[in-house]
Amino acid sequence: MDGDEGGEMPVKDGIKRSLVGVIDDGTKTVRFVIFEAESSEELVAYQLDKTEIQPQEGWYEQDPKEIMQNINKCAENALEELSELGYSREDIVSLGITNQRETTIAWDKFTGEPLHPAIAWNDIRTVSTVDAILAKIPDQNKNYLKSISGLPISPYFSALKMRWMKDNIKNVRRASRDKKLLFGTVDSWIVWNLTGGPNGGLHITDVTNASRTLLMNLETLNWDPMLCRLFGIHRDSLPQIVSSSEIYGLVNDSSVLDGIRISGILGNQQSALVGQSCLSAGQAKNTYRSGCFLLYNTGTRRVQSTHGLITTVAYKLGPDSPAVYALEGSIAVAGGAMKFLRDNLKLIKDVAKDTEQIAGQVFSTGDVYFVPAFSGLYAPYWRKDARGIICGLTAFTTKNHIIRAALEAVCFQTRDILEAMNKDCGMPLSKLHVDGKMTSNDLLMQLQADLTGIPVMRAHTRDMAALGVAMAAGSSAGVWSCDAWRRRAANCDTFLPTTTDDDRDARYTKWKMAVQRSLGWATTKKSIAMTGQRRKNSMQISVDNTSRKDSVTSRNDSVVEHLEQRVNVVVNNEDFVEDLLNYSVRRYSLFLPTRTPKTERSILDDAEFFMSKKECDYGTCQCCPTEKKVQTNWESIEEIIENDPEIIFDCDDNPIVVEPVKKFDSLLLDSGSNIMSSGISLTKRIQLEKLPDIFKTICNKLSHTSLT
């Protein structure tokens, strides 16, 4: 290229403008997008797919390291494309991050190594943990904490995932004990790594992501001590909560992004709300992806839903700006239903083309209804026992009807949420802004308008999440104004209703009938925590194994006689007893002594005390002098958390509360002592290698110290 050609830059209007980069971490993909400020035009985007791990049914995991690797690869490729447009890396003045919400990661703050794969937002492994937490709540009311956090107690939210990891993953439990555990949503993991990781990385999260953890107080916008105590999560392991738009720090990881300011963080659905310019109370948007997420802006007023919706922080555009709230309805399966038709039923080959083309060949579903509750129903039902059904089939039903019913299911679930929002807010929505990959389906958009009875406004940019956080990051960097963005009129396509009220209401009534039929399918055994029944601490078990007596040695007989005469075992799990019975060689009885019941203070006995706290009590108000502010005594809260009972699960996945036990250094026993969960004593030291394996198993189960 000669000098004359080199002077001509292929930039718009021949003028180089400031650029804003965006890291967009979704459920399935990672993207790096670069926007031109002022025009908000997407210049460059590069995307990579993520590996989804499903170790069991209903379990969804991701590799935290792969997330960071994909971010770096996407950034490198995007910057290469950017140079072809006449821009350079130095033109990027700010960086924003938008992420899948509720997905939770635990890592070591000294090594930076993940302690477990990231547990994705749609993972339902924490169902038993939910039961164990509900057992501590008055009347097992799943909405008991909504007045504090805005959220029901559900496997959906991060606190349950954190608690599950502490209860079930040894590395996480050990890191918590050693004070080196860090918990966070994906935004925290990304920022911590970008800003240095173990070498001074920032452990922060913004208010939108924090409001999805079930640990943040919606009024104070801080971690709530009562919620932290309830879930047993130390505040030191949690990130600092910041606003959605401010300069947090510089990238410091020796990557291609090194030195760029990070100045915006938003959860992806809140970011889409901002990207759609729904910045005034009464506006709403719906994003159609694998799931579906409808947010209704309620302004600075927190609306407590009584119809199955959740209250969340929509955004906080600056440290000194007020928080804006929203009502949200989440749909677990939207685009996921189309993938089910493709991958499981083999009814279609291409989701984007075939769903519209094949479903468009029939004028109705033929009275077929499809409820895609593959892992339960989210808002407004919150029923984890629901499962997917297809009903109304006749001899004339074809795959065309089923595919069309799957599209209508997305629209009906959206109407469920709109109906709940109308009841909570008292004002029907006049129009619905939509975005997401599924909105390219014109048939789906028309069905949505017909079944809700309101205009549907489709943005020309399918993914508004990246654009929304670009606005937040650019605003704090001074490259564009929030007020100008508020007045911005986005280009959109409009779909108007074409059906009558009677027709849409009749179809919606049958949808509700189908939903009722989907409930109660996951009929699992009620856990001890939920039924209120406790295992009997005293019991006698007899088993006849005389037929096997001839095949065993007298040495084993003596072991059993010694067990009967001298061993008293305190256990909470029949599995241990079963192991003993399998080891037996003749008929014998095993007596388990009764523990003296203790009257313990409930973990929520002080709930009213914490719930009555105001900003003045947390030291976050502006009205009190510094010396008069009452500071939360986190040391006492964390001491209580440290001494709280641990929850383990038996073979039936029932939660069992186990009191903390003391470690012991050796195996000692005297003739009058009992083998208790706190330790074992003998009159003389014995050789461990000669101890039968079953006793090693029991002792290892009953203590934190291995016998080997």
What does this protein look like?
It is built from 24 helices and 27 strands. The protein is of the alpha+beta class and 708 residues long. The protein folds into 2 domains: 1-332 and 456-493 and 595-652, ATPase, nucleotide binding domain (Nucleotidyltransferase, domain 5), CATH 3.30.420; 538-594 and 661-701, no CATH class. The strands form 9 sheets. A 7-stranded mixed beta sheet has the order 17-18-16-15-21-22-23. Strands 3-2-1-5-14-13 form a 6-stranded mixed beta sheet. Strands 4-7 form a two-stranded antiparallel ribbon. A hairpin with a 5-residue loop joins strand 26 (646-649) and strand 27. Helix 12 packs across helix 13 (399-425). Mean pLDDT is 77; it is low at 1-9, 525-556, 558-574, 576-607 and 662-685.
Query: What number of domains?
Result: 2
CATH class of the largest domain: Alpha Beta
| Tally of DSSP helical segments | 24
> What fraction of the residues are assigned to beta strands by DSSP?
15-25%
In short:
The chain contains 24 helices and 27 strands. The strands form 9 sheets. The chain has a 7-stranded mixed sheet with strand order 17-18-16-15-21-22-23. Strand 10 and strand 11 (222-223) form a beta hairpin.
